[in-house]
Amino acid sequence: MIRAARHITRVWRDEAGTVLVELAVVLGLFVLMVFGVIDFGRLGFSYVLAEKATETAARMAVVRPAICQNVAPVVRRTLLGTLNLSVRNGTRCSDAPGVCRAPATVTCTGSAGQPQAAAILTQIAALLPVGAGPENLRFTYSYDPDLNRVGAPYAPIVTVEITDLEYQFISPLGAFVALAGGTDDGRLGTAFAFPSMSASLPAEDLK
């Protein structure tokens, strides 16, 4: 009985192997922190690059033919403007109420078959997350009376939006969480929706 008690006491006080256990726990936390910093740093960098890509796409779109169909080529008069003989061609639309016929806002999504959208994507693809295509570009042409004149070519506000992209983590963060003793719910370290962003500029020459 006494011998058994001594044996139990000796086992209880034996610290052999505790260093390895502590190392496994600390190492798991350390690896999780390192790869977490790397991956979320990549995410921040990718966001900045995507912002630059959006601005570049907008600058390219404002000097190219309209990518969407049914964008008005010319600013036309309304009936009121036709009857008002004092309003001449070239009058700014905002100078007299009801002179210009406001073109409708037109929005469309890029496609591989649209040469202008494909050309824009070619220039900015290196700045976007992996897997971006023309369908991730959305173009909007909207009317601003201060930018347009009676009988002149239509000069819309051109907005380019980058949307529906996914960001891919390169490290298995979920596995590192499990290694550190946490619970991996299957979402950490997988792809997630990249935030949409847009840039707008007045059109310079849609021809």
From TrEMBL:
Species the sequence originates in: Thalassococcus profundi
Domain of life of the organism encoding this protein: Bacteria
Membrane-traversing stretches: 20-38
Pfam families: TadE
Native organism taxonomy: Bacteria, Pseudomonadati, Pseudomonadota, Alphaproteobacteria, Rhodobacterales
InterPro entries, per the entry: TadE-like_dom
Domain TadE-like: 17-59
Protein name (Swiss-Prot/TrEMBL): Pilus assembly protein
Keywords of this entry: Membrane, Transmembrane, Transmembrane helix
